[in-house]
Amino acid sequence: MAYTLKNGQKAIVRQAVTEDIPFLKEAIKAYVLESPYQVLTIEEFEDTFADYQYRIISRDHMAGSVIFVADVEGMIVGNIDFTPNNRKRLAHSGNIGMGIMANWRNIGLGSAMLDTLIKWAKKNRSIEKLCLQVYADNAAAIRLYEKFDFREDGRQKQFIKLGKNKYEDNVLMSRPV
After folding, report:
1. How would DSSP label each residue in 86-113?
2. Which of 34, 63, 113, 141 is deepest in the core (most CB within 10 A)?
3. Domains detected in the chain
4. Arithmetic mean of pLDDT, 123-133
5. Are 78 and 99 within 8 A, CB to CB?
6. What is the DSSP code string of 110-158?
7. Which range is least confidently modeled, 24-33, 50-59, 90-99, 152-161?
8. Distance CA 131, CA 150 (A)
9. Interval 83-112 mean pLDDT
10. Four-residue CA torsion sign, 128, 15, 77, 79
11. Beta-carbon neighbour count of residue 61 at 10 Å?
């Protein structure tokens, strides 16, 4: 889907393809290094990215799973993914993960990616609920999610360990499809 960002540039949010893998890898690596709100550490990056690569290459790896990329003038600057729960009683729901390169934040790209994912989910009859997790102090992300009708389901106190004796709460949010 095509979107005009607040800076006037055009973004295409589309399903990831095999050719995107090296560019997506660099984008994810950049926001793992840049963002204080990524749970993934750089030390864990390679193993996690191997799963992403597998999901892109074999699209039927997990029914109902999708990875979208945000493409601005041929450059991958963000991504959003949905991973369904694999237990029968939870299969109506799944989890969203999203990342945007630092210089592309706060210009509407997050809205474009969420809009694309929600429209995709509405076409997938097996998905009834979208879930996500966000750092409690990430006010900008929480405002974005609330704009798309996500509501807080609860908090996990001191769930994210940032360092010695330094923790952040994890906010659980969801919305019906």
Report:
1. -SGGGTTEEEEEEEE-GGGTTSSHHHHH
2. 113
3. 2-133 (3.40.630.30)
4. 95
5. yes
6. HHHHHHHHHHHHHH-TT--EEEEEEETT-HHHHHHHHHTT-EEEEEEEE
7. 50-59
8. 8
9. 95
10. positive
11. 11
